[in-house]
Design goal:
elongated, alpha/beta
């Protein structure tokens, strides 16, 4: 498996590197470390010699950042490559992703508190939207457990099954909680179907909710069949509510180390236009989030 880790010079980089060192990756996994130097406008009044010296110090700082990270990760991965690029981070990262074709791109969330989520237009948010591969977002204040407790959110879709298969490749997971959320009934849907009849509305609401809970249960059962191949202890959970709200809440209650969710594989304008539960979950999750896209 090939991971591409984007690092910046924030004070949280060390915590993200430490988390990746403990992440239970398959034997033989490779790691590419990349740092993008953003365009730097130096006033024209600065002498050329001083400009050159400033650029050299900047380049040296980037190389030092990656060298420290590579030193900590060298024994954990079969190969570690370091790359320094210059330009707008999201464009340079996407170009590198298309060139290197990693299985997972990893990014920190720049130290934002979970309640605040991802900043609209941030590098991590754009990677989640535009990267063609799976993406893992790591909050700054996080610590990796020796054996991870994972929550896997499923809706029974092929994307959710892909996420379950991904977990079977990760060694030494402690527990996987397979969770499915049944969306609440919209009052507007009930009103249309009942034609103003309150009794009929209650009966219709109960019937629809029962159907959704049964679908959620089927989704859990299908996903458990795959996830059980991981060898981890399997637990299941059914919750009621909008997935973007109840999945992060359940992850917080269970104190899981990693939240995994499948993606329908949409990127760019399609993902933005249709809305993305995975993005909404990542905005609220209290722990690292792995969004698995179709391989």
């Amino acid at each position: 498996m090939h991971f591409l880790l984007a690092l910046d010079e924030s004070r949280y980089a060390d915590a993200i590197v430490a988390w990746m060192a403990r992440f239970p990756h398959p034997v033989g996994s490779r790691l590419t470390l990349v740092h993008v130097l953003e365009p730097w406008d130096v006033p024209k009044t600065v002498a050329q010699a001083d400009r050159t010296a400033l650029q050299r110090r900047r380049d040296a700082g980037a190389q030092s950042l990656l060298a420290r990270a590579a030193h900590r990760l060298w024994n954990a991965y079969s190969g570690v490559e370091t790359i320094v690029l210059e330009g707008l981070p999201i464009y340079e990262l996407l170009r590198l992703i298309h060139a290197k074709r990693p299985d997972v791109v990893v990014s920190g969330t720049r130290g934002l508190e979970a309640a605040k989520g991802l900043v609209l237009g941030s590098v991590s948010q754009r990677l989640l939207t535009y990267a063609p591969c799976s993406a893992m977002l790591i909050p700054a204040k996080t610590k990796a457990a020796r054996r991870m407790k994972v929550m896997l959110a499923t809706d029974g879709s092929p994307g959710a099954e892909e996420a379950a298969r991904f977990l079977t490749a990760l060694p030494d997971l402690d527990r996987i909680t397979v969770l499915s959320a049944a969306r609440p009934i919209s009052p507007l849907d009930i009103a249309r179907g009942a034609g103003g009849d309150k009794r009929k509305a209650r009966e219709l609401a109960a019937e629809l909710m029962k159907s959704r809970l049964e679908a959620a249960q089927r989704a859990v059962e299908r996903t458990v069949k795959i996830a059980s191949l991981s060898g981890a202890t399997i637990k299941t959970s059914l919750v009621t509510g909008h997935p973007a709200e109840v999945i992060p809440r359940a992850a917080r209650r269970s104190r899981c180390d990693l939240l995994v969710i499948g993606s329908r594989g949409l990127t760019g304008r399609e993902a933005t236009a249709l809305g993305s539960v995975s993005l909404a979950v990542a905005q609220q999750a209290p722990c690292p989030v792995l969004v698995v896209k179709p391989s």
